[in-house]
Amino acid sequence: MLKPDRLRALADALTRQNVMRLRDAAALLGVSEMTVRRDIAASSDRFTYLGGYIVSATDVPNNAGYSLEQEKDHFAQAKAEASSIAAGLIGDNETLFIDCGTTLVALARLIPPERHVTVVCYSLNVAEALRRKPNVRMILLGGVYVPSSDSFAGEESLEMLRRMGINKAFISAGGVDTARGVTCWNFHEVAVKQAAMASAVERHLVVDKSKFGVVKAVRFSQIEDFDSIITEQGQQARKLQ
To answer: What's the structural domain count of the chain?
Structure first.
C-alpha cells in the first residue's frame, strides 16, 4: 500500500472510531509501527500520535492538560446538583458504572444509603466514596495507574466490562458540542467509556452546563449515543420514553 493510500485508509478508520492504537493502525495498513510513525510525523496537519494512540489532528484543538486537583473546585455546586438528579435514577439491586472525574465523585457520595447496588468504577476517588457505603458492592477495575485522573487503564478491565451487564452507565465528559461530539481530556478513558456504554442498558451523560460548547482532546461518543443528559438544570431525555 502506497503512502497516500495508507493515509486515506487511516483517515477513514479514524472517522469510524475516533481513536486508534498504534499497533492496530499498523495491522490495518499492513506495515510496521515505525512506518506508521513516519507517516504521521510527515502529516502532522492531519494526524497526531500521543501515548500509543492516533487521533485526527482536528480532534486536538488545544494541548492544555487535565488536572484533577485543578478541576475539583470548578463549578462544584453545579456538579453536586447534577449528581443529585442522577442519584435519583438509581434503583435497588442494579448494576451501575460510574465514570471517573470530579462530577461523578459527587454521584458516588449521593447514592442513597438504603440502596443495594453493584457499582463498577475505575478511579480511586470514586472508589473512596463508594467504600463508605454499607450496601454497595464495589468492583474496582485495575490496570496502570494514571495520576492526572486518579484512575486506571488496562486491557483486562475492558474485557471485564464487555462481559458485564450494566443497568445504568453514568458518564462524565470534558466537553459537549453539537457538531464535534462528547469529548474528554485523557486518551486512556476513551476505551473504558465506550466499553461501559456498549454494555449498559441506559447511558446517562452527567455534566454541568459549563461543558457545553467546549471541545477537549479526544472524542469518545456523539450526543445522540446517550439516553439522557443530566445537568444542574435537570434531566433531558433523548431516547427514554
So the answer is: 2
